[in-house]
Amino acid sequence: MTISVYDMDRTITRGGSWVPWLVFWVRREAPWRLLLLPLLGLAMLGYGLKLLDRGQLKALGHRLLMGRRVARARVAAAAEAYAEQVVSSGVFAGARAAIAEDRERQAILVLATASNAYYVDAIARRLGFDVVLATPSTWLDDDLLWQLGGDNCYGMAKDARVAAWLEQAGAGAFAFTSDHESDLPLFERALASGGTVRVANPSPRLRSIAGQRGWPVIDWGVSHRSLWERA
Questions:
Q1: How far is the C-alpha of 199 from the C-alpha of 177, rounded, in Å?
Q2: What is the rounded distance in angstroms from the CA atom of residue 75 to the CA atom of residue 98?
Q3: 22 HSE (CA, 13 A, CB side)
Q4: Beta pairing, strands 175-178 & 217-218
Q5: For residue range 100-157, what is the model confidence (pLDDT) as tens digits?
Q6: Judging by beta carbons within 10 Å of its beta carbon (0-12, 13-18, 19+), is residue 51 exposed, middle or buried?
């Protein structure tokens, strides 16, 4: 069994996906919520000051710009439109080629990302991924609630999600591709499994680490960095 695990934001896509998703949602579904953007700015300041963690920031951003409760059909329609936009113009050509090469050799393609599952699923499907490990949401009946449905799939939490999936799948060695040092646990897990790693469009710190450790670095393009979406 050949397994290839990819991060998404700034690895496959040119930039982060969370803030663009919120902006897309507001423009499409609730323009009046643009009035609440200053409150999101305050929440982001709280995150910068370490008063909020990443998961709390995501939940609060959702609460402010999407509301407490949204029907599944409405979320799904917006997610499909957003995914179409991301995949049509926001994916590195080199990432597409790498994914196509993995698919050609019949690898199981796994997308492991801190982005929200309710819109990542549509992006992953368009790119041909078999498995999505993303930040879960809370659903009640057929409505999306603002609270996260589990740990934000970032750093050690992402590593734990991938490890659990590998164990469930009875898998061994795997390849891993990412742009950010928050994924160091997964880089190390991939190498310990007997697999391979690839550093794509890396942050300055990860580029330095990769140079020190002799990890292969590939630049598919210049990613759009953000103060608030560091991974």
A1: 6
A2: 30
A3: 24
A4: unpaired
A5: 999 999 999 999 999 999 999 999 999 999 999 999 999 999 999 999 999 999 999 9
A6: exposed
Q: Between these two residues, 124 and 43, which has the higher pLDDT value?
A: 124
Handedness of CA 83, 144, 116, 159 (dihedral sign): negative
State the Cα torsion 145-147-148-151 to the nearest 10°: -160
What kind and span of H or E run contains 217? strand 217-218
Distances from the Cα of 14 to the Cα of 79, 100, 111, 175, 225, angstroms: 18, 18, 16, 21, 9
Q: How far apart are CA 187 and CA 192, in angstroms?
A: 9
Distance between CA 176 and CA 186 in Å, rounded?
7
CB neighbourhood size of 177 (10 A):
28
Question: What is the DSSP secondary-structure string of 161-203?
Answer: HHHHHHHHHT----EEEESSGGGHHHHHHHHHTT--EEEES--
Domain boundaries, the chain: 3-218
CATH number for 3-218: choose from 3.40.50.1000, 3.30.70.3400, 3.30.70.260, 3.40.50.720: 3.40.50.1000
- The token pair at 31 is 């323009």
pLDDT averaged over every residue in the chain:
94
Under a CB-based contact definition with an 8 Å cutoff, are residues 195 and 174 in contact? yes
